[in-house]
Amino acid sequence: MINTPYLLFLGDVPDMLAAKVAIGIRDWRPENAVGQFRLPGCGADLGLADMTLAEARAAGAQTLVIGVANRGGVISKEWKKVLVAALEEGFDLASGLHNLLRDEPDLRAVAEATGRALHDVRVPSLSYPIADGKKRRGKRCLPVGTDCSVGKMYTAMAMERDMIARGLKATFRPTGQTGILITGDGVPLDAVVADFMAGSVEWLTPDNDDDHWDLIEGQGSLFHVSFSGVTMALIHGGQPDALILCHEPTRTHMRGLPDYALPSLEALRDMALPIARVANPACEVVGISVNTQHMSEEAALAYLAKVETEMGLPATDPYRFGAGKLVDALAGL
Amino acid sequence: MINTPYLLFLGDVPDMLAAKVAIGIRDWRPENAVGQFRLPGCGADLGLADMTLAEARAAGAQTLVIGVANRGGVISKEWKKVLVAALEEGFDLASGLHNLLRDEPDLRAVAEATGRALHDVRVPSLSYPIADGKKRRGKRCLPVGTDCSVGKMYTAMAMERDMIARGLKATFRPTGQTGILITGDGVPLDAVVADFMAGSVEWLTPDNDDDHWDLIEGQGSLFHVSFSGVTMALIHGGQPDALILCHEPTRTHMRGLPDYALPSLEALRDMALPIARVANPACEVVGISVNTQHMSEEAALAYLAKVETEMGLPATDPYRFGAGKLVDALAGL
C-alpha cells in the first residue's frame, strides 16, 4: 500500500510519451496528484502546479512517484539527487522502473536512516497464497482482450469512474505496474511466481458487499502465447461474474508476434466464457470495449454499430464515448 | 544439468511412500541409479545395492540425490553429516526439498571449498526468455489432465520408453521437480515467474529433427483453478502437435478443491484443443490415458473399452497395460 497523495516526478524526460504513468495518475486519480516536479530540460507538462519538495510536503504529499519511464536502465545522478533529498524531506518513493530503487545502495541507506519506504511496484511485496477457488461474496468484472494492450485497464477504470458517479459500489483492482502506481495498491501479476498467480488475484478481490463490483485490470490475452498463462490465472483467480471483450480493430497481428493473427470477437467469447465458467458457472459476457483511437469518429461509430449487431451485445469505446453502456450491462447480474 | 549417475539417498524415512523420487529414478532411469544409501532405521528399500559413499564413487556415481521427502522442513543432523561427507568425497548434491540446500550455510561453505554443485531443483537455475511463439522443428506431445496428479508424468515417460524401444527418436521433457531429478534436467515450471512461463517451455523443447518427438511432462489442469495458468503456459509454450487426455475415474472432486467436480473427457477435449491450436493449428487430440490404479483389472479394461467407444480415440493405462496404443496414435502426425 503506497501512501497518497503523490508528488509526480517527471525528471528530464523529453516528451509526454515518456510520462505515461504520471498521465494515468492525473487522469484517473487527480485527487492523488498534489503537483509535479520537473528538472531543467523536461519536455513533459501535466498542467499541474510545479512544486519544490518542501512545498509538496506542506501540501500533504506523502510519496514521490517516478511517473516516467527512463531509457537505458540507469537512475541518473540528477534524478538521484532529487530522490535522496525527497527521502530526507520525509517522502516515500515509488517506482515502476525495471531497475529497482532497492538495488541502489545510497537510496537504500538513506531510506533506512530516515525510516522511509521504497516501493518497487514491479516486484511482489507479499507472499501470496495458492488459490483455493472458494466462492467469494460480491461481484467481479474482468475485461479480456483479443490481444495485449488493447485497452483493458482503461476499460476497467472508466467503468469504475462511471459507477462511482452513479453512487454504485465499485473498486478498480490493478494487476500491473501502471495501475498499482495510479491507485497505490494492487498485484504485479506478471512478476508473481507461477504457482501463486491465481491466489494473488483471489487475495486482490476478496469477499465484499453483495452489491459491490470489483473492476479487475486485465492482463495479456488467452490468444497471446507469451502471456496467456497470466490471463488464465486472472480469470480463474478473479472468478468474474461479467466479462467485457476488448479489441483494437486496426491491429494487423498480435503484439510482438508477427506470425499470429488476432482472433475475432466471436472466437474470444467462445474461448473465454467456458474457461470463466469453470470458476464461476454464472459468468456472462456482457459487453464489448473497442479501442478506436486510430479511427475517425465516423468510422468508430459505424464499427461499434456493426459489432453490436453481430455480437448482440452493447459495444462502446469507454475512453472516447463513455463507459455507460458497459455499466448498464452489469445491472442484471 | 545434474551429473549422472546417482547414488540415491533414502535417509531414515519410515516407508516407501516417502521415497517417491527415488522410486521414480529406479523405475524410469535405472541406468542413473548406481545404488542406495540408507541410514539406520530406514524403512524404505529400492532393492538396489547398499553402498558407502566411497563405494558409490568408485562405481562412477557423480551426484548424491536426496530421493525422499522430509517432514518438518528441516534437514536433520544425521542427514547433514552424510551430505557434508558426500561433498568432501566428490559428489554433487541434488534435492527437490522445499528447504533448499543452498540455504544451509555449512553445505554451502563445504560445496564452495570442494568445488561441488548444490542443485535445488525447486527453483529455476536460469533466466528464461519471454516466449516468441515461433514455430519450431520436430514434433511435440503433451498430456493434459482433467485434474492435477492424474498420471501425466508417467504417461509421457511410458511413451518415451516405448518409443525408444521401437527405435524412434523421443525425449521426455520434465517440467516438475520429480521429473527433473529423474532425468537430471528440465524446468521447474511452477516456480518460474509468470511472464517467463511459456518462454521456459519453448527453451525446454527447442528445434529438433523432423521425426523427433518431445514428450512433455504436463502440469496442473485447465480445470484446476489454482494452477490452470501453468497448464495454459505449458500448452502455448510447448505448441504440441498431439494432446493426450489424462483422467483418474475414481476421483470425487478436483484435488484440493472440494467444491469443484472433475470435467468429462469431452469437456477437457473441447477446451484444450482450441487453446492448443492458437499456438499450433495442426494440433490433434490423439489418445486417452486413464490412471486405473484404484480399479480392478476387469473394471479397468471395461472402462477403457467404454471410453474408446465414446470418444473414438485409443485409450489405455500406460503404466498398467503399456503405452503402445498412444505411441501408435502419433504415427500419422
UniProtKB/TrEMBL annotation, chains A, B:
D-glutamate N-acetyltransferase-like C-terminal domain: residues covered: 130-327
InterPro entries: DgcN-like, DgcN-like_C, DgcN-like_N, P-loop_NTPase
Top-level division of the source organism's lineage: Bacteria
Family annotation (Pfam families): DUF1611, DUF1611_N
Domain named D-glutamate N-acetyltransferase-like N-terminal: residues: 46-124
PANTHER family in the cross-refs: DUF1611 DOMAIN-CONTAINING PROTEIN, GLL3100 PROTEIN
The protein's name in its UniProt record: Uncharacterized conserved protein, NAD-dependent epimerase/dehydratase family
